[in-house]
């Protein structure tokens, strides 16, 4: 298992995000499956840095995943109606080492307290077996296969107390 920790995304992390977003191996299971344009990267990074109130639907918090001080991925948590949707991208240089699962573990620890909601969800492309396994190993269950993706859910309400 990888020793990964997450920390809040900052403006200095935009280059890491841009590198991941322009890599077709990373974006293969995101949106339309194509690398993102510079304009899209800039707009999304700006949104991530907005620090919107966490009680607003659509508000998100981004995190950089680091292993021994080196960026290895990105995690996101976004407030939805009655839940928090998590997402994660892993640098292909560290694929197969458990980094994605470690990011999920860290998001499960961080997101409920940050948003005050214990129901977590994730949406995964049906052919992304590594991501599905990472979620299932951490207690998520597959809910349905709507809108071209498989929905996973985990309720951690009993395990956290709202601050």
Please characterize this protein's 3D structure.
With 163 residues, the protein is α+β, with helices and mostly antiparallel strands. It has a single domain, classed as Aminopeptidase (3-Layer(aba) Sandwich), CATH 3.40.630. The protein has five helices and seven strands. It has helices at 14-21, 24-27, 38-48, 99-115, 129-137; strands spanning 4-8, 60-67, 70-80, 83-90, 119-124, 141-144, 150-155. The protein has a seven-stranded mixed beta sheet with strand order 1-2-3-4-5-7-6, sandwiched between helices. A hairpin with a 2-residue loop joins strand 2 (60-67) and strand 3. The protein starts with a strand and ends in an 8-residue tail after the last strand. The model has no long low-confidence stretch (mean pLDDT 91).
> Main sheet, how many strands, which sense, barrel?
7 strands, mixed
Give the strand line-up of the largest sheet.
1-2-3-4-5-7-6
Structural class: alpha+beta
Give average pLDDT, whole number. 91
Cα-based radius of gyration, to the nearest Å: 15 Å
GO molecular function: acyltransferase activity, transferring groups other than amino-acyl groups
Organism: Pseudoclavibacter chungangensis
Protein name: GNAT family N-acetyltransferase
InterPro entries: Acyl_CoA_acyltransferase, GNAT_dom, N-acetyltransferase
Please give a quick description of this structure.
The protein is α+β, with helices and mostly antiparallel strands and 163 residues long. It has helices spanning 14-21, 24-27, 38-48, 99-115, 129-137; strands at residues 4-8, 60-67, 70-80, 83-90, 119-124, 141-144, 150-155.
């Amino acid at each position: 298992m990888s020793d990964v920790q997450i920390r809040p995304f900052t403006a200095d992390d935009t280059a890491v995000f841009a590198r991941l977003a322009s890599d077709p191996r990373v974006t293969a299971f995101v949106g339309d499956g194509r690398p993102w344009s510079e304009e899209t990267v800039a707009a999304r990074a700006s949104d991530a840095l907005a620090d919107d109130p966490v009680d607003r639907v659509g508000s998100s918090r981004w995190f950089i995943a680091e292993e021994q001080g080196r960026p290895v991925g990105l995690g996101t948590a976004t407030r939805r109606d009655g839940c928090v949707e998590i997402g994660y991208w892993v640098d292909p240089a560290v694929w197969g080492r458990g980094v994605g699962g470690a990011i999920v573990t860290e998001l499960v620890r961080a997101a409920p307290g940050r948003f005050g909601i214990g129901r977590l969800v994730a949406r995964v492309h049906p052919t992304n077996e590594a991501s599905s396994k990472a979620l299932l190993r951490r207690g998520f269950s597959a809910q349905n296969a709507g809108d071209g993706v498989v929905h996973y859910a985990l309720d951690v309400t009993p395990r956290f107390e709202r601050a």
